[in-house]
Amino acid sequence: MAALLAAVLGPELAYADEGGISVWLPGTYGSFAAVPGEPGWSFATLYIHPSVEAGADVRFPRGGQVDLGIDGRGNLFAFGPSYTFEEPFLTGQATFSLLAIAGRNSASVDATLTGPGGGMVSGSRSESLTAFGDVIPQLTLKWNDGVDNYMTYVMGLVPVGSYDPDRLANLGLGHGGIDAGGGYTYLDPSTGREFSIAGGLTYNFENPDTDYQNGIDAHIDWAASQFIDEHAHIGLVGYAFQQLTGDSGAGATLGDFKSRVFGVGPQIGYKFDAGETTAGYVNLKGYYEFGAKNRAEGWNVWLTLAFSPAAKKSE
Asked: DSSP code of 4?
């Protein structure tokens, strides 16, 4: 059970930092985040539907301009393979993944300001974009000690996605970033209880198109669940996001612009056989956001489908 569910890696999604949205998408990690999986190839697909907004009195920097009253919707996919090595590395289990992003993103603003005096250059405006996003490589190490499981990871972001600083809707970030952190999972098969927590820090490189560099971000994702039979589990998920250092560069017209947001919601997961040597897992979770600062808030829904090598049966 643990080997199958832990095979689902948390794909990362990225949007433009200057719009008040971070490289790290809060909620990326969930249940079984630190549990080792079975060696071999796995494939995961994640669908996420975010719906966020901010009032007309909330300002967001974008490409040297300032947007007022942001409203955003998305139908986004992250997908790609991962490979778990059989030979131990630093006494742990190593997994390398490479994920891509694609989908449709829509955004609107009440008004756009420009210049040191804040002169208005446009009224309400809406845009939609269907395209590919950035590419995300990640290396994860996991260790197991009875009911205790530990994890560390490092990921990068290669800015090859569709991006234009003059657009409201983008699927590319416009610059690179590095995120690293660790996590812990308590999993007791005898009781079916599980708790996971993972956290990390994000360093953002400067956006060369706008001379804008986002500050260092801190994030924590957590999840708790209970198995109701050998296949299904239900529980809660949540996250906390806080920017630690301010934004900088010539394009940071609103100063340090530190952001934060919190989220919490329900989850349900189900594991199933997908063949003699393949196991499947599907998970549905949703988050209601609150406590946002310098960041749009709302709700988002995640649907994950993953296939991985089945756990070896004991003789």
From this structure: H
Per-position DSSP letters for 138-204, written without gaps between them = EEEEEEEETTEEEEEEEEEEB--S---TT-S--SS-SS-EEEEEEEEEEEETTTTEEEEEEEEEEEE
Structure tokens at 295: 């960041």
CB 236 within 8 A of CB 267: yes
Query: Any idea of the CA torsion for 297, 300, 306, 312, to the nearest 10 degrees?
Result: 80
Buried b or exposed e, range 146-175, using 16+ CB within 10 angstroms: eeebbbbbebbbebebbbebebbbbbbbbb
Under DSSP, the state recorded for 3 is H
Of 23-37, 48-62, 122-136, which has the strongest mean pLDDT? 23-37
> How far does Cα 196 stand from its chain's mean position?
16
- As a whole number of angstroms, the distance between CA 207 and CA 46 comes to 27
C-alpha closest to that of 259 among 226, 302, 299, 218: 218
Q: Count the alpha carbons within 13 Å of 283 in the hemisphere toward its beta carbon.
A: 33
Task: Give, in order, the Cα–Cα distances in Å from 253 to each of 71, 161, 168, 211, 293.
Answer: 21, 25, 17, 11, 17
* Host H or E run for residue 127: strand 125-145
Q: Which DSSP letter does residue 171 get?
A: S
pLDDT tens digit string along 140-199?
999 999 999 999 999 999 999 999 988 888 888 888 899 999 999 999 999 999 999 999
Residue-range domains of the chain with CATH: 2-309 (2.40.128.130)
Secondary structure (3-state) at 312: coil
- State the pLDDT at residue 2: 46
In terms of phi and psi (left: phi > 0; alpha: psi -120 to 50; beta: otherwise), the region of 91 is left
Look at residue 163 and give its three-state secondary structure.
Answer: coil
